[in-house]
Amino acid sequence: MYSFRNDYSEGAHPKVIEALTATNLIQTCGYGLDDYCKEAADLIRHQCAAPQADVHFLVGGTQTNLIVINSFLESYECVIAAHTGHVNVHETGAIEATGHKVCTAYSPDGKVTPQMVEAVVAANTTEHMVLPRMVYISDTTEIGTIYTKAELQALRACCDKLGLYLYLDGARLASALTAEGSDLTLADLAALTDAFTIGGTKNGLLFGEAVILTNDLPKAHFRWHMKQRGAMLAKGRLLGIQFKALMSDDLFFEVGRHANANAVYLRDGMTELGYDFPTASPSNQQFPVLPNSVILKLQDLGYAFETDHVVDDTHTCVRFVTSWATPKAAVEQLLKDLAAC
Amino acid sequence: MYSFRNDYSEGAHPKVIEALTATNLIQTCGYGLDDYCKEAADLIRHQCAAPQADVHFLVGGTQTNLIVINSFLESYECVIAAHTGHVNVHETGAIEATGHKVCTAYSPDGKVTPQMVEAVVAANTTEHMVLPRMVYISDTTEIGTIYTKAELQALRACCDKLGLYLYLDGARLASALTAEGSDLTLADLAALTDAFTIGGTKNGLLFGEAVILTNDLPKAHFRWHMKQRGAMLAKGRLLGIQFKALMSDDLFFEVGRHANANAVYLRDGMTELGYDFPTASPSNQQFPVLPNSVILKLQDLGYAFETDHVVDDTHTCVRFVTSWATPKAAVEQLLKDLAAC
Amino acid sequence: MYSFRNDYSEGAHPKVIEALTATNLIQTCGYGLDDYCKEAADLIRHQCAAPQADVHFLVGGTQTNLIVINSFLESYECVIAAHTGHVNVHETGAIEATGHKVCTAYSPDGKVTPQMVEAVVAANTTEHMVLPRMVYISDTTEIGTIYTKAELQALRACCDKLGLYLYLDGARLASALTAEGSDLTLADLAALTDAFTIGGTKNGLLFGEAVILTNDLPKAHFRWHMKQRGAMLAKGRLLGIQFKALMSDDLFFEVGRHANANAVYLRDGMTELGYDFPTASPSNQQFPVLPNSVILKLQDLGYAFETDHVVDDTHTCVRFVTSWATPKAAVEQLLKDLAAC
Amino acid sequence: MYSFRNDYSEGAHPKVIEALTATNLIQTCGYGLDDYCKEAADLIRHQCAAPQADVHFLVGGTQTNLIVINSFLESYECVIAAHTGHVNVHETGAIEATGHKVCTAYSPDGKVTPQMVEAVVAANTTEHMVLPRMVYISDTTEIGTIYTKAELQALRACCDKLGLYLYLDGARLASALTAEGSDLTLADLAALTDAFTIGGTKNGLLFGEAVILTNDLPKAHFRWHMKQRGAMLAKGRLLGIQFKALMSDDLFFEVGRHANANAVYLRDGMTELGYDFPTASPSNQQFPVLPNSVILKLQDLGYAFETDHVVDDTHTCVRFVTSWATPKAAVEQLLKDLAAC
User: Fold this and answer.
1) Which residue of C has its CA nearest to D91?
2) Is the pTM of this model over 0.95?
3) Helix (H) or strand (E) holding B333
């Protein structure tokens, strides 16, 4: 049975594998200074309408978050995040390991609002407290919700008012930008954030996150930060080759749309079967509440998916994730099997 | 013209690419908990004759060094290295960024001796100084030399006497173990060190370092260390698949032998042409002294290689590196071109 | 007018000044290895009924917290605290600057309960999250409440069950142990915690915190931790001399009782005048809610005290602190002035 | 017998004790925001002819060094020091614990020269290496030598050329500025460095280092750095009161002259007795070579002093230190006893 555990259960999109194979024996210099990286960066700058932006390619998400955040912050400065934020919950204290506190605000839908930011700033006013200096958001959020352009503009205005940087973690950005109700573009992100990432790992690459720096502050020495944290890939070309393929021929968005289409199909099918989704998600992560008995039956059938949280003695909220690789037939079969539960 | 700049100028050995392609659409769980990683770890344990060892797969060398070293050391403890050691010179202070001092000893041949270790320990005796607790060595060293079994046994005895851990960075281990004069085996390394690595990046993989932990200390929570430093690859399977291919059918050693054969051919040919090698290297890095005029001619011909250090006003010591991908014909052509200089 | 801003507005208790003056020209060795430190440590061990405990003397509270916590924790481990905990709010991210996350639980009365601890542990279960390993509590808490013996025993049992260390920050310990309703002794603290501190700064010394380590783990190299963080006082004798004076002739408790008596007198007087105390405090910090108009009048009269939080548009919760130096007459005058407001 | 072990064997200069006693019961606000600190800072700014400088008061030297250095450096930047530098040898890796590498140059006399600085900078040129960004010097040096104005000007010019900050650790600055051959003033230091310290601990205070920041970079948030590292004294007044006394009525220099006079008397007397001083020191630390038999005899007589290094099988280089508290009679007695050895 198909695994809906996550969006990195397979290798890479066939076009990415092809690109890696085709270039395998070509010699390049190392550490991301090759032409593939330059071309991929140019493609990204072009699609972001951000000719002045710096683009760097890193391997993974936690690595990227700790480096970007640390590259902006002074020792005594902290980053603000939703309590559900990846940097707060699922990175084993990676940000703190670089010396920075993550100050959190409770967020029912995984999104950060100006009100939350203002409350954290208002509570940290003297040298006895950390100095809030950056807002971390993720799009899609960890629970599948997405930001609208108006929401992002409001956050930008709030950050400008309070002297904060705005950083957007785009690990699932393709899903976010192609989701129902999305009105954001790559160019919007480049215009409204100080830095953001375009996630590859969860969108068809073997691995890879592109960092787009629009704020000048960390530009000059970002590669020093990368190297110091062990994030400079010797064969950096691998990232350039993959991102060049991903950002060409609409592949980035095509992959996002494919994942979303299957997720929405799954969501709507489950809704018809009477299952509830406590948080409305238009993206490739869906969180239905299932009776524990149903969960056991699906697992017996060989389905894989993750548990999110216990709802009550007999119900659990679980997570189904779709990706570039999810066949529509797998979702159809799941719905059929669910109907028979 | 061929680039002798390093041993990571190409992608991966064809067998590795094949393995990645063949498994691309198979679903596995993430973060290195898949069966490919298990099989690769079992192969390594078997070849190391170390059934109790823990094996982890990481992406790059600096990342691996900072995690392994930090997983052994308390805050106030330091690691001892040759002044030429990679952790001292070429990792942008990655070890210090985890809070640990690198205490160095001057080493003319890049190797650490018991005498050097004893001197550092003797100089750090109270709580006003860092506490030496680990010895870092690399094999091959950064200047191409290799350790003999007797040398490694002497270091082990010294470490036992002084209560130190011994860690061997095997970024170029295949070249070391298959070099002229080598009498070390993977099993020797597992028996004589507390931790060592088997480098993949410089030996035919796209990327990847295997960490072999024989000392129990860091075993229980090594994955926490990995995740905190951003070193847990989401599609960890990529490391398992590659290392499974590398450790099967003698490929690891075959690749090392191929690189060494070409390096020795290059060295002997240059020696015949009258060029000097200040440090005798039996491995895949060769450091001849060339007249600057010759260097310019080679560069004009399109050869790529790195400068190591200035010898005098008219001579420079340079580095030529061979790999699994170096064709013998490329070396022959180089020697021909050199002879014509 | 008297300042009720804090319990460190004056210098030191006269007996402490005398001790410093009397010993001023005696030569001792440095760094806390002198006889005064030994005698003070012996006095503390004796009063704690903990002959095996290690005792160290440090200068300040934040310094002490960051060193003690880091001396117990591995890189990936975190400390649990109340959301009001000093280490979470008022140390400018000092714990995070040593690399450790502070995981918090919401606590209405500033105390940590086993339920809170269990909830944090239950939420951090894999290598993608930090590993909870220590509970931080303060007694008195930051809002003046104190722990009972039963509460501390319950926390100890919880920590034992979950494999956690228990650390008690005793910056205001004298006030806690001598407060109404306290049934804890120094010996109880030594028996029930892995480490705790006896605060001097807020209890009549010029400065100084004594750390009592009952758990063996950090004993061997605690002085390395101290030195590395800049916490080893050259003239360590100053700490020994002061703590020797403080722990002799009941001075430690006498000072606590004096501060508490004035605080309770102030509290009861204000209560009679109709003012409300949202959190009941038996110790030397009192948090009444005052009309803003009254606050302004008191400030006009020259009284100093800190604002805690806004209650509504016309009321603010403020903090009055008493100490060894607070004259009863100053409290009487304050109550008289308040009555006239 | 008198202890020549160090210059912090006694408490404080009587004038300092008097000042602390006289102000003991006066209430002030905490954390160095009191009037005594303001007055002391003004005195220092005046004597430094540096009205724009920021002055902060910290407790100890290692604490001060780690905070000042970290307040100037980005994560990937390093500080250059002599191999004998306090930050390299005697601070238990305190600088590395804040994440920064200390790059050293071998210095026979403990001083850093422009040539040394240039060599370190020349060796660290890419993102694979740390970026040198500050030069750390101490005056007096750890082996008693002092900088001339010409030397400091040359270092300043070198730092300007290379874009480096210059930081001078003045733990023994009073001795340096009043030594034979010194032509430097406090105003020179303020003009030629980006930051320097005026040491109190080794010059008659109970404790305390004044940091003078002339470079604007760390000014705005230096107190955040202090608090985060546990270096903000609650009763900060103690530092203000002491430094006010020290910087009044020429006491700072008087104390330095007293210590130096006794040191030079000791040095000249020992020279007459035929003992050798490998490094010429004009300051309050003297390093004679003594036969081991003589060392034993002195120790039997009750003299205390530290061993510096072994010279040969029968001779050791030792250290004698004088201070504000050293009576001339103690030196006379020592010379008499030596003559009788």
Assistant:
1) C228
2) yes
3) helix B328-339
For residue A26, how many other CB atoms are within 10 A of its CB?
14
Tokens 């015949």, located at residue = B272
Q: A 15-74 residues with CB below 8 A of D? A: 70-71, 74
Min Cα separation B174/chain D (Å): 24
3-state per-residue secondary structure call for B75-130: CCEEEEEECCCHHHHCCCCHHHHCCCCEEEECCCCCCCCHHHHHHHHHCCCCCCCC
Nearest residue in chain D measured CA to CA from A72: D74
Complex confidence, ipTM: 0.97
Q: Which SS3 state, helix, strand or coil, does residue C275 take?
A: coil
Give every CB contact of residue C110 below 8 A, 6+ residues apart in sequence: C82, C84, C138, C141, C142, C143, C144, C145, C279
CB-CB neighbors (< 8 A) of D9 in chain C = 27-30
Report yes or no: C197 and C57 within 8 Å, Cβ to Cβ: no
Sequence-ordered strand ranges (E) for chain A: 54-58, 77-82, 102-105, 131-138, 165-169, 195-199, 209-213, 285-286, 289-291, 306-312, 315-321
Burial of C3 (0-12, 13-18, 19+ CB in 10 A): middle
Q: Do D127 and A75 touch (CB under 8 A)?
A: no
HEC profile of C53-77: CEEEEECCHHHHHHHHHHHHCCCCE
What b/e sequence results for D229-250 when a residue is b if at least 16 CB atoms lie within 10 Å of its CB, and e otherwise?
A: bbbbbbbbbbbbbbbbbbbeee
Residues of chain D in contact with residue C30, where contact means CB-CB under 8 angstroms, are 5-6, 8-9
What pLDDT shows up at residue C249?
Answer: 96
C83 touches chain B (CB under 8 A): no
Residue C325 is given by DSSP the state T
- Chain A: residue whose CA lies nearest to C106: A106
- What pLDDT does residue D1 have? 85
Query: Under an 8 A CB cutoff, do B101 and D78 touch?
Result: no
How far is it, in rounded angstroms, from Cα C135 to Cα C152? 11
Q: Is C274 on the interface with A (CB under 8 A)?
A: no
What is the residue-level pLDDT of chain C in tens, covering all 341 positions? 899 999 999 999 999 999 999 999 999 999 999 999 999 999 999 999 999 999 999 999 999 999 999 999 999 999 999 999 999 999 999 999 999 999 999 999 999 999 999 999 999 999 999 999 999 999 999 999 999 999 999 999 999 999 999 999 999 999 999 999 999 999 999 999 999 999 999 999 999 999 999 999 999 999 999 999 999 999 999 999 999 999 999 999 999 999 999 999 999 999 999 999 999 999 999 999 999 999 999 999 999 999 999 999 999 999 999 999 999 999 999 999 999 98
Distance CA B228, CA C128 (A): 8
- If phi > 0 it is left, if psi is from -120 to 50 it is alpha, else beta; for residue C166 that is beta
Mutation target for B interface from D70, D90, D96, D310: give the one with most B CBs within 10 A: D96
As a residue count, chain B comes to: 341
Q: Which of B23, B62, B224 sits opposite A230 (nearest CB)?
A: B62
- Chain A residues with CB under 8 Å of C130 CB are 92-93, 96
The alpha helices in A51-90, defined as continuous H runs, are: 61-72, 86-89
How far, in Å, are B273, B299, D310 from residue B339 at the CA level? 7, 15, 55
Mutate to test the interface with B, among D92, D104, D142 (most CBs of B within 10 A): D92
pLDDT per residue over D188-228, tens digit each?
999 999 999 999 999 999 999 999 999 999 999 999 999 99
> In a 3-state reduction of DSSP, which class is residue B33?
coil
- Which chains share 3+ C-beta pairs under 8 angstroms with B? A, C, D
Cβ of C97 within 8 Å of Cβ of D238? The answer is no
Test the D interface: residue of C15, C26, C28, C228 with most D CBs within 10 Å:
C228
